[in-house]
Write a structure and sequence with these properties.
Helices cover 26% and strands 23% of the residues. By secondary structure, it is of the alpha/beta class. It folds into two domains: 89 residues, no CATH class; 64 residues, no CATH class. The strands form three sheets. Strands 3-7-8-9 form a four-stranded mixed β-sheet, covered by helices on one side. A three-stranded parallel β-sheet has the order 4-5-6, sandwiched between helices. The chain starts with a strand and ends with a strand.
Length: 176
Amino acid sequence: MSESTADNDIIVNRVANSGLISIDLEDFYHPGERVVYDLKQNLFQELLLREKDFREFLKTHDWTQYTGKNVAITCSADAIVPSWAYMLLAVHLAPHANMVVFGDLADLEDALFREALAKINPEDYRNAKVVVKGCSKYPVPLSAYVELSRKLQPVVASLMYGEPCSTVPLYKRKKS
């Protein structure tokens, strides 16, 4: 927003002069490909997991195809799968994939943002007026907004949502 004075016709950018710090959560978006590994493909008749067959598959499968990817492990079949099967998949995927989680693509996205937001040092925002941008071209899970709020609220002077020219106040520290 700008404001013009009749005296000098000087344009003042009030947003730039406000001291607001803007955080765009899309800056924390991991660009790597997201894929789902469905354990259903390893089940016998989509009902049960045969350990011997599964271990043979694990030995011969080309795990390098997951290099740099973000992998969500799930099982879409209505079958009882032992916990160790998911653990074995994780052991084989971990050396290649950027991230491996149990769940669906939404769980994977949550984990990627949680990992990225863990790197924020809240002290960098001590006593700051922070605006968390609301619009982005990448899908930002609601959990990322909640996590950022939880992390910054104890240190910031104020926390807002939206754009610097039009914000929704979320938190303002009481003056002592």
